Amino acid sequence: MPKRIHLAPTVAVAASMVAGSAGGQDVSATYSLYGTPGLLETPTAQSAPENEVAATFAYTDTYLRSTLTFQITKRLSGSFRYSNVDLYDDPFVGSVDRDLERGFDLQYRFNNEGQYLPAMAIGLRDFLTPGRFQSEYLVASKSVGDALIVSAGLGWGQLATADGFDSPFGSRSVAEPSGQLGPDAWFRGDAALFGGFEYQINDRWGVKAEYSTIAYPEVGNGVAIPVESPYNYGLTYRPREGVQLGLSYLYGTQVGISGSFALNPNRRPGSSGTERAPAPIKVRSADARAAQSWDRAAVPENAIATALSALLKTEGITLSGVDISDTTARIRYTNGRYRSEAQAAGRVARMATQVVPDSVKTFVLEPQRRGIPLSAIRIARSDLEQLENRAGGTDAILSRAEFDDAGPTADLRMVDREGSSFAWGLGPYFRLNPFSGNGSVDLDIGLSLRGVYTIRPNMVLSGAIEQSLLEPEDDPAGVDATPDVQNVRSDGSRYGNDGVPVLSSLTFSHFARPGTDLYSRVSVGYLERFFGGVSGELLWKPVNSSLGLGVEINQVAQRDSDMRFGFEEYDYDVTTGHVSAYYDFGNGYHAQVDAGRYLAGDWGATISVDREFDNGWVIGAYVTQTDLAYEDFGSGSYNKGVQVTVPQDFFTGSPTRGSYANTFRTRAGDGGARLQVDGRLYDVVRDGHLADLSDTWGRFWR
Known about the structure:
Radius of gyration: 28 Å
Signal peptide: 1-24
Structural class: mainly beta
Pfam family, one: YjbH
InterPro entries: YbjH
Largest sheet: 14 strands, antiparallel
Protein name: YjbH domain-containing protein
Keywords: Signal
Shape: globular
């Protein structure tokens, strides 16, 4: 039940980082009030440590900003920002006229600092959603001794709104309509020189001073920040690694406070892991390795399966089927504990050496998810025995293993599922819906009761009932900003606004393998909060290929806003679907392109790029462009956002497949809206394919 809570997005962004704010931060780089490495309001050419993620909030009397910054490579960084300048009577009460700014930044550092040569960088601020903060710059930074860093730069756009001079590159155009990419304006118009220094007193305290060429324009009834002086001063304090607090005096008129919370996905804040040590490989004697068969009368296959099933159960792994010949053992299983399928495969292999007859020389491990086999990992038993404790054993076992499609299910001796087929859980939920149809930020907090009934491993009935803990609103939706477009998302605040429990979803899903390298899914029911119907998907994805191709078709109708069982209120149904291409570039970089028809009937495409770390962190960005005209699409012209997924075991150290995910988007409007359906195939199958297995193979022996 989304409620229109006028809460600054700063809180949501920063809160997602505070719990794990002990990531490593380079002591020489601090974050500015814009949330990027810099001084106070001007950038520097410094970079944070590679892969660092930082959430920064900054507040003065007349603005409130929150920024999420990711150091993509050693030299390239990207930022996503929510800003509100002079639009609040009180920053924690209400906003005015939907003027909350959203911005994206990029900065690229050309070189490392040398003995005489400074580090130099080029940057674009607020370039995807051009607005009052749009600017471009060239900047250089140089260390003087161990504690002083001096920076100077040349800026355009907002960075040249004070003390500027004519640029040799021509006049500056304005992107129309607002929200569309405007490269014709880059590095044009007036330019201005800015600069300053930062002095680190000790490991915790530092001071900053800068000459700023920013003059904030008038907004509403006055100037956002009155400028009486171009000089800004600041004090930074770092009480612990990954936390920076700041106090600043700006433009001779205002005091500001800020906080940055940084962590690095490659640096776990706690221990390296608290999972139980794996069982050692049981090494066969020379005579046992020479055996060519085993006595089935003395040790029947079903007894081996029972023993192996019990061992795997202690590892949180469910044995689904086995096929044991004199020399080869096929083992199909479902990993319910370990985020890495490579780690689960290592655990299965270790347990197999304990109970599988000595004559078996080859293990074929077949991970499965949602009841569909993902791959076949063929490993020589002798390699396990020889390489377990050898230096370089991880790379060696990977190079010797073979990866292929899983074998036929008909040849397996299936193992009866133990325990209850029904699972449930009760827990809190948090939902942030930015910039919906009423122009507000909709926040909802409540309890969710979820249940899953596994009819068969590949046939699942699941559902969720939610109860909001916030009071309903009298008029949650407000004025329809896009009356000519079906409100497929912008009426989100209307949904479940009665103060009673609602049916968030109720879905039956069937997963299958219709052919070699093919996977299928059919889902029926109340697929998401706003739509119900039928969703079908087919994916082609060879085990050893970096490329995957898929198609999805959905026939859905819009649910009633009371979120019960009806579809009469909106009387709207639509056929929607996409063709998709997925590609794994290696080193954790994934790209996805989806082209097709969206829920509002608009046609277009979405491009997504993700960086997935070996420890399960995922940071990505996406952009969607459709054929809706600007006046129909609404503010922003196209959808774009940043997605962050944090694995639970990163903080707890305990093995789990759970994760926390959030999407920071520019708006949640009707254009470019895609059906939200659980169990899309690429996310289901790729963990068990070669590219992902290779990325996390370092966990095989863990």
